Amino acid sequence: MGLRCCGLLGLALLLAVAVAGAGAATPRARQLFVVSQAPVTLTDHHGQLLTGNYSVNLLWYGRFTPAQRATVADFVLSLSSDSSNAAASGSPAAPSVASWWTTTSRYHPGAARLILGRQVLDTSLSLGGRLSETALAALAARLSPHRGSVAVVVTAPDVLVDGFCLSRCGLHASATSAAAAAPAPARGAVPTAATRGRGRFAYVWVGNAAEQCPGECAWPFHQPTYGPQAPPPLVAPNADVGMDGVVINLATLLAGAVTNPYGGGYFQGPTEAPLEAVTACTGMFGAGAYPGYPGQLPVDAATGASYNAVGVAGRRFLLPAMWDPKSSQCSTLV
Ligand SMILES: *[C@@H]1O[C@H](CO)[C@@H](O)[C@H](O)[C@H]1NC(C)=O
């Protein structure tokens, strides 16, 4: 089962406004009626969450520049790095990426700490230029997934993926592998958080939407495809609309993978189309956000870029609001 992500639900909200009087429900419009405007409450379904140390292994499918890969790698590195050096590097004060991630530990003490693992390049599109969900799982399996890792497949702008742009910007899911199952637990051993999910591994796919649907999967760095066009697009903090969009969607999916890895964790709504830690807060980045408006955000005076988090080496990112189980609210960093 794949759980879709990200921008589309928020855009679907906009679409609801747009089509409310029209009566015709397109598939996209239908999605949006899943979105509740009622206060968000994610329910704990008492299934397994990811806890402990996990390495995030990246498979780059298609062409990416070193700078593009570095943007995502630095984001993952920043999840577990104390970025207290941020001020020293000249960045205006902003919360760290690591502090954004700490909200996941409010779901469960010891929620996964994510560490950058290995990276694999597949520049020759070994499974072709159009990928099915099965192909995504096969690519994830190439990262030698084990239960201490999350496999992440990132697809290049020209790679087609079933459902990409039509219903999703990425997904997180799980699969089983022999490697993830080994070593076998001792007979009679009490299952621990680490052994309960034996054989299963979590994986994520996110696509660079720069060419196919930046208005849906790289908003707010691009005009939205649907809905009010009022606020101009934000300047992307890493000067790459597609990759800064990938960071938003990857952040969303990693939070979902850790708090609802196998479909029995925290979510609201139907199992097949759940609202998770970040998808429950889609489209919110700063204080005062409402559908179509990402909220108030710090702007870099030199570049005009909007951001709300600082990572390793002073790198800036725009990260989405995450639902906080202690306050039962979507909390933004700024
Ligand atoms: C995770 O890694 C850190 C740093 O290596 C270590 O201090 C910590 O004990 C590890 N946590 C778990 C649950 O293994």
Strand portion: 15-25%
Rounded mean pLDDT score: 84
- Gross geometry: globular
Question: Helix and strand succession?
Answer: EHHEEHHEEHEEEHHEHHEEEEE
Oligomer: single chain
Number of beta-strand segments:
14
Q: Poorly predicted ranges (pLDDT <50, ≥5 residues)?
A: 9-37, 85-89, 184-189
- Helical/strand content category: alpha/beta
Q: How is the main sheet built?
A: 6 strands, mixed
Write out the distinct hetero groups bound to the structure. 2-acetamido-2-deoxy-beta-D-glucopyranose
Task: Supply Rg.
Answer: 19 Å
- Please report the number of helical segments: 9
What is the topology, as strand order, of the major beta sheet?
1-8-9-6-3-4
Q: Share of helix among residues?
A: 10-25%
Alpha-carbon distance between the termini? 34 Å
Give a structural overview:
- By secondary structure, the chain is an alpha/beta fold.
- It has a domain at 14-34 and 43-86 and 105-179 and 197-280.
- The protein has nine helices and 14 strands.
- The chain has a six-stranded mixed β-sheet with strand order 1-8-9-6-3-4, sandwiched between helices.
- It is globular and about 50 Å long.
- It starts with a strand and ends with a strand.
- 51% of the residues are buried.
- The chain binds 2-acetamido-2-deoxy-beta-D-glucopyranose.
- Residues 52-53, 113 line the site of 2-acetamido-2-deoxy-beta-D-glucopyranose.
Keywords:
334 residues, six-stranded mixed sheet, two-stranded antiparallel ribbon, single chain, binds 2-acetamido-2-deoxy-beta-D-glucopyranose
What's the SSE blueprint?
Layout: E1 3-5, H1 7-19, H2 27-34, E2 43-44, E3 53-61, H3 66-79, H4 97-101, E4 113-122, E5 130-131, H5 133-141, E6 149-155, E7 160-161, E8 170-176, H6 178-181, H7 193-196, E9 200-207, H8 214-217, H9 241-259, E10 266-267, E11 309-310, E12 316-317, E13 322-324, E14 329-331
Parallel strand pairs: 3-4, 3-6, 5-7, 6-9
Antiparallel strand pairs: 1-8, 2-10, 8-9, 11-12, 13-14
Helix pairs in contact: 1-2, 3-9
